[in-house]
Design goal:
The complex is a heterotrimer of chains A (about 325), B (about 350) and C (about 280). Chain B has about 350 residues and is of the alpha+beta class. Chain B is built from 11 helices and 12 strands. In chain B, α1 crosses α4. Chain C contains 8 helices and 15 strands. Classes of the chains: A alpha/beta (about 325), B alpha+beta (about 350), C alpha/beta (about 280).
Chain lengths: ~325, ~350, ~280
């Protein structure tokens, strides 16, 4: 991991010093364990702030839309797919970007680790697939694979799909994972059980919109929940309004979501927000053999028409 | 103020007796986290927690609240006229609230109950509330209460302050409301002799606070210079402008007012709002005086750490509970921002 | 307990379209319960929250003068949800008002002084209130010379045109009406932007002369240097801010700028005061 950081700094310094980019977007060390902060560096002399470890979960593609500068951006597999999506959706141009690709072995889930340890964590280190956490009078070694964020555990695209320079050789992709186990479980429920399932999922939502704002796809200048004329959705924590927000947001991400997990990671009350987006992701895969953000040259399924598109669901 | 002793075996029976006289609130485990919630009759507060995920401000100031009701049916008398509605202001008590969170209620009170205007819902709920605080024997690494005007055993605000002494609690009973509550619970064992032990525990807890902020120079900064400081772009860069920090915060009081109508029946309600949202300041004309996230992030920190300081002369608008530090999805840390602000000198780069 | 959020029910007595673009309408409200008038004692420069039941509330400057009894008047620009709903209401409809809210132009401080009122566009409402109040026989002798510079894009966009003509005819007030441009051959007043006309017509600034300025940001931006050139000190330049508001009583937090709540500590500030807070308006 520290080799990654060294490499990122070296590339960033070169890019800034020779004027290839105006800024590099990466991570700096967090002020608390298990989360690092997205940051920018504009001065080649300050690249030492940039770091890399398994707490760099935030999707940096979220910081690109509508920027005018030439940008070097550090990108994991999922970030790179969202960058592709941004380019396809005209949020930024390929020419503006210098993509520093990071082969990723998954990001760790800070809440999962806190729960597993059950004590306050004061420091974290990682090596060889192990995460060592320590605190007041204890040290515990955890298996990184077991502490991954749920989306990382089933990730099929750990290597960036697009980059200008890689910080390391590609890592092996996970080929044996069942990406849709949880969706299938929900699909198997009868209508009432499914309703209750989603009802419980949303219990506790405080409408802070962290899921929406963390999502690289949610760059609309005015989100439908913020419209006042007409006002589509009420603003309280009324169940119907809350549901409407989550369901509609998920539909707006159909065929675009890369399952980067930003929504879930951001949620302050622990709602597994991906449960909504993943069903649509699965449908896109099954109906259109589509995975979002894999290529700059193919239009997404929901903005193209093909005569052979499946239409059995239109009744 | 007097000090009494509550044996742990008397705690549960005492709490049980309170249900008749109070609506009780306390920390309960919801999924993986603790939050304050109404206690069902016989349910005990779960005091085995360090900090709740959401602050207990909703006990006095719910996230959503109906202000008025009305009918739009023109065949009805008083149609289109907002009407006050009956609300429950019977006595309520919150058990196991942290001293910093009680301090936060006092702090928000400055806004809602001032010489010119009194917010009727806040004032009546606050008057109905008795706070039974629990000192923090083991504060978190993100707690910076002792440099935010309070502390793990701050006894200046709560009606009753408990200290967990192992097999018993010691309780400082500070107010008439507190006396009434311990009386109803049947806790009366005098423990004046143990007051020193409680103070020792408090000192121990205070010494465990490793996280500190410096705020001494904030008041002397020139507002407009601090506003124009060069560090704001760096501070705000990672912000996604969600409302997490503001909704979790025990001292954030801003709200929105919305009319909601179903058929002919409507209500005017208020919901917590967040200065992180562009809508917060958006004019009807489309003009927005805080048009970007940097402006909005700056507003949150300037309000807590500068404007509040200047307006009330009573310290910062933060109690150091550390919730925003722990829960910010991108790790924006108020302690770091406070440091930048406190040491800011115009003309000197300090990001 | 007095509930400061509870609107006073009023009936729309009269709704008048003011401007040729039909976006500005003046609403004259009468109290459903006549005793409520007692509660709504205001001074020129204050505002009220207009409550359209089912839609929400908007903060609007009071356009009537405290000297006008039995009703209260507001001129509303149609921009958003509530103002559009209000424009669609009919005479006789019931709605609500809350107030009076905020502070007022510093009449106490300005007593015995000369006053220059400078307004642009539809931000002339509380200035109308001020002029009517000043010209009231009970008040006129308490103040010195009164000048008014008022401009709009075109003659048809001027508010209160009948009253403007009446004031023009008086000799105890100096009117300087202007439009940005017009092809009306009968236009007998000024043509030019407000800052230009101010420079030409306004008296020099001194300890005994105050300027009250209300208008769009662009007008304010260019009027300020003119006033400085004319010798107005910053504590003699009075301005009124418009920020998004909800509660109107300093509680909901959204109109906060610096340590001020515009709704409660303002909306009226001297330029000297505004210099100490961020320009978030």
């Amino acid at each position: 991991m520290s080799e990654y950081a060294e490499k990122i700094r070296g590339i960033a310094k070169k890019l800034l010093d020779d004027g290839t980019v105006d800024m590099v977007i990466g991570f700096r060390k967090g002020t608390i364990p298990l989360i690092n902060e997205p940051c920018f560096v504009k001065d080649g002399a300050k690249v030492d702030a940039l770091i890399w470890d398994s707490s760099c979960g935030v999707n940096l593609a979220n910081y690109l839309p509508k920027r005018k500068e030439k940008i070097g951006v550090v990108a994991k597999g999922c970030d790179s797919r969202n960058i592709v999506t941004h380019i396809v959706e005209n949020q930024i141009t390929r020419e503006q970007l210098y993509i520093i690709g990071v082969p990723c072995t998954g990001m760790i889930d800070r809440r999962k680790i806190r729960l597993a340890v059950g004590k306050e964590i004061l420091s974290v280190s990682e090596a060889d697939g192990k995460v060592t956490v320590s605190g007041d009078g204890y040290e515990e070694v955890l298996d990184k694979q077991e502490m991954l964020q749920d989306n990382c555990a089933i990730c099929a695209h750990r290597n960036p799909v697009i980059s200008d320079e890689m910080v390391a050789d590609p890592v092996p992709e996970q080929t044996e994972v069942d990406r849709y186990q949880d969706v299938k479980a929900v699909e198997a429920m009868d209508a009432e059980a499914r309703w209750n399932h989603f009802e419980q999922l949303l219990d506790g939502c405080i409408r802070c919109y962290a899921c929406r704002n963390a999502c690289p796809l949610c760059y609309c200048p005015t989100c439908f929940v913020d419209e006042s004329q007409p006002q589509w959705v009420g603003k309280s924590i009324d169940k119907t309004d809350t549901r409407t927000f989550h369901f509609l947001r998920a539909f707006h991400c159909a065929g675009r979501c890369t399952d980067c997990g930003a929504c879930e990671r951001a949620c302050p009350v622990g709602i597994p927000v991906r449960q909504f987006t993943k069903k649509l992701e699965k449908d896109c895969k099954e109906l259109y053999d589509w995975e979002a953000g894999m290529s700059l040259d193919v239009r997404p399924p929901l903005d193209t028409y093909r005569a052979e598109d499946p239409d059995e669901f239109i009744k | 103020m007097r000090v009494i002793k509550i044996d742990k075996k008397d705690w549960e029976s005492g709490v049980g007796k309170l249900f008749g006289d109070y609506s009780l609130f306390g920390p309960v485990k919801q999924g993986a986290f603790h939050n304050f919630a109404p206690l069902e009759k016989g349910q005990m507060p779960d005091l085995d927690y360090v900090n709740t995920r959401l602050s207990p401000k909703s006990v006095v100031y719910p996230q959503c609240e109906t202000m008025f009701e009305y009918t739009l049916d023109e065949t009805q008398p008083d149609h289109h006229v907002n009407k006050e509605i009956a609300k429950d202001y019977s006595p309520r008590a919150v058990l196991g609230i942290r001293p910093c969170d009680v301090k936060a209620i006092d702090l928000v009170n400055i806004n809602f109950d001032n010489p010119q205007y009194q917010d009727p819902w806040w004032v009546q709920r606050r008057d109905a509330l008795t706070t039974v605080a629990l000192g923090c024997n083991n504060p978190c690494a993100t707690c910076f209460c002792t440099t935010a005007g309070t502390g793990p055993f701050d006894d200046s605000c709560a009606d009753v302050l408990l200290a967990d002494m192992g097999d018993h609690y010691l309780a400082k009973v500070r107010t008439e409301k507190g006396e009434a509550l311990v009386g109803k619970a049947g806790w009366s064992q005098d423990a004046a002799g143990e007051a020193g032990a409680m103070d020792d525990l408090a000192k121990q807890a205070e010494s465990k606070i490793s996280s500190k902020i410096e705020t001494g120079k904030l008041a002397s900064k020139v507002t407009t210079e601090l506003y124009d400081a060069d560090f704001w772009e760096d501070v705000a860069f990672s912000c996604i402008n969600c409302g997490t920090c503001t909704y979790l915060c025990p001292t954030c009081w801003c709200f929105d007012i919305q009319d909601e109508v179903q058929g002919k029946d409507g209500c005017r309600m208020r919901n917590w709002d967040t200065c992180m949202s562009g809508l917060f300041t958006l004019h009807g004309t489309g003009h927005n005086p805080r048009p970007n996230k940097t402006a909005r992030v700056r507003q949150r920190f300037m309000h807590k750490l500068k404007y509040y300081v200047d307006k009330y002369g009573d310290g910062i608008g933060c109690v150091g509970c550390g919730r925003c530090v722990q829960q910010c999805p991108v790790n924006i840390d108020i302690r770091r921002v406070c440091e930048l602000m406190n040491r800011f000198e115009p003309g000197k780069e300090c990001a | 307990m007095q509930n400061p959020y509870l609107p006073i029910p009023v009936r729309i007595d009269k709704a008048t379209i003011e401007t040729e673009d039909r976006n500005l309408k003046t609403f004259k409200f009468v109290y459903v319960n006549p005793e409520d008038e007692e509660k709504f004692q205001y001074k020129a420069g204050q505002f009220g929250e207009l409550s359209v039941t089912g839609k929400g509330e908007i903060p609007i400057g009071i356009a009537s003068s405290p000297t006008e009894k039995g009703y209260v008047m507001f001129t509303v620009n149609r921009v958003g949800l509530v103002s559009t709903a209000l424009h669609n209401m009919r005479e006789g409809d019931i709605m609500g008002i809350r107030g009076p809210l905020g502070n007022w132009y510093p009449w106490e401080r300005m007593e015995g002084k000369n006053i220059v009122i400078i307004g642009g566009g539809f931000a002339f409402t509380t200035l109308r209130s001020s002029i009517v109040m000043l010209l009231d026989p009970a008040n006129r002798s308490k103040f010195g010379d009164i000048h008014v510079v008022y401009g709009a894009r075109s003659p048809g966009m001027l508010l209160y045109r009948d009253e403007l003509a009446q004031w023009e005819a008086r000799d105890d007030i100096n009117m300087h009406i202007t439009v940005d441009g017009t092809d009306d051959p009968d236009w007998k007043y000024n043509v030019g932007f407000v800052p230009t006309i101010t420079e030409q017509k306004a008296p020099k600034g001194d300890d005994d002369t105050f300027a009250i300025v209300c208008g769009p940001p662009i007008m304010i931006k260019f009027t300020q240097p003119v006033l400085e050139k004319l010798g107005y000190k910053h504590d003699h330049i009075i301005m009124s801010l418009e920020n998004r508001m909800k509660c109107g009583i300093g509680m909901c937090g959204r109109c906060n700028i610096g340590k001020e709540f515009v709704c409660k500590d303002g909306p009226v500030f001297t330029l000297e005061e505004l210099n100490t807070i961020p320009k978030e308006y």
